[in-house]
């Protein structure tokens, strides 16, 4: 602005804005420059008065949010987000730059958080289009387009509140309370079907506006409030009463040189002539909790309404561009889009940008818009740069229209000690929080990567799910880990909640693990906790966890519970080898559990129904893998111990403790090595049962298959067991159950039938012999078994069945040989084999064109 300031109107300067509106932000900045106030009042929690000065620090980069939470229950929290294009942020920055006091005048967070717990959810219904906020509605529920004036709770907290309010919902529905969206009403009155497009045409594309724009918006809001009253925002009555009281205090101190930046919906209420006594009466008796407040980073994605936080805007990235672009916003935006598409290997040139600009401007003119908006630019991008495809447009919407910008707050901002320790650890491990999801590959043999793994596992134990484990693509070794990282703003609340466990990540995770170990109800729960403690490197918590594990393992006699616990325990022993953790006590417990399973599993398999048999089958498979892994771990540990501890005569300085530990490990490994043959004997016992006692066919078939895969059951013996199971004396449902156990599921059973036609012939002959009256009962089991096979396997099996058994005998006239091996197809066809001989010779570096006789001889 140039020239002398405009003459100040009488009374306070009421600037009604749309939260997160760049047009409103420009207009606020222009109004404050034109009529400089002595104090700026902003719609927001008054507790923030003490920390608003941090907004002037260079390390403060929006989007950020004010986070207020109950001191004794950090899970009860609210956010007040602010973007770089928010009118409130523009007013704060202007005031701090001109050394003008800034005060927040909304209802204190101490009251709003206490009121939110008791409040029923009220659905918001807009007359036309999606709900978009001009003035900020009550902080009642998740559907609200909540901006800076209303606290926004994390999704998990909203879900909990919704559960608590289920009983109050019918009452709210019967009252038929409807929340009015002022912007939607005004856009409908103007003939627009899209409130966003109307707001862009009226405000965003009209320059910085001026006092006239604020006057017009205030008049429109007054008319709406005269028509709709509070519009379904019942809490606005007490909020506006508090705002009027704070405004009176400011006018007593600074006179009429006061500027108020608030949602336009509240402007008529702030101009009402009411008494201070009446306003205080409205505030009397409000519930209250002790609160703490701080600044936390926010993201553009959380400002978008469709992301679940409902901040009232669908395109924060676009609005940020409009606010910060110095000139030619459409040209600069399409240049940015072209850069993104080029980075993703789309062929986009400068000519595409020029044509897209022309098309966007033409579309705006045809649609009667003052300037090309987001809809016109996206239509132009789709037509010119994307060849009509919506796939690149989805990328543009995600990366640019919404965006993944993550704000930053200075270190001097108030934070719980746990948050400060987390920040220091993130910096030391060079693990920066980012709003965009990314994959992180870790090699646990490297110290930095091992530290990152421990940090992420500790945070998960504390309920701070910054990273989630993913499947490693490059390696399946235990020294590799893959994580998907994405920092969400609500994780700041989780960190505050976890602060009750300790002041550092390590101490908090240790304390929580010890508490969970003491309060755990089941054996599987404790074994999972032991595994998580090893992954997180919580050596101080392991003694407590191990005592709890030993106690529960000794008392639990349920084979199913023992089978659930063993795999996690064995994985923990294996992880300990990679992370250098002493897992001797874990190994002892694992061997003890396996011993008890060996004894208890056979009788536990008797008399099971279909569901029980299916569950026991899963337990048996898991224990089979765990025992194999335990034996491998024991062997590897024995070899490593032999390398690290030479013979006693060459190591005279070995301490008594080392000798004792070595002897314990050796005994443990010997016990683990003996488990596998005993487990195989137990499986053979299960597989050989003929139904007396009543062991389900599913269990017997799976036991036979596990032995066959391990090479402990000959193929002829497997065929004999299948013949017995499918004999005429076996009931068809029981036989089908045996087949499901032996070849069912995604365990390679289909390929077994493809390569062993004896087994396929047994199944085929049995299926043909099933009586008609029993076929209906058998069909679902068979369908479930064979539907799990790949399409190619099913097609091959069908061809084999259609062809019938392979003909035995010498080579026939067609050149087909006798079966090369029992159970396999015919031998080589020399004519077909000879066709590939030249190629094979060429690959081997031999003469590619030998004599014809040599070719035939080579084929034979």
From TrEMBL:
Superkingdom per UniProt: Bacteria
Compositional bias of kind Pro residues: 139-154
Pfam families: DUF5682
Region: Disordered, residue numbers: 128-177, 635-657, 801-829
InterPro entries per record: DUF5682, LolB
PANTHER family named among the record's database cross-references: OUTER MEMBRANE LOLAB LIPOPROTEIN INSERTION APPARATUS, PTHR30634:SF14
Name recorded for this polypeptide: DUF5682 family protein
Taxonomic source organism: Streptomyces javensis
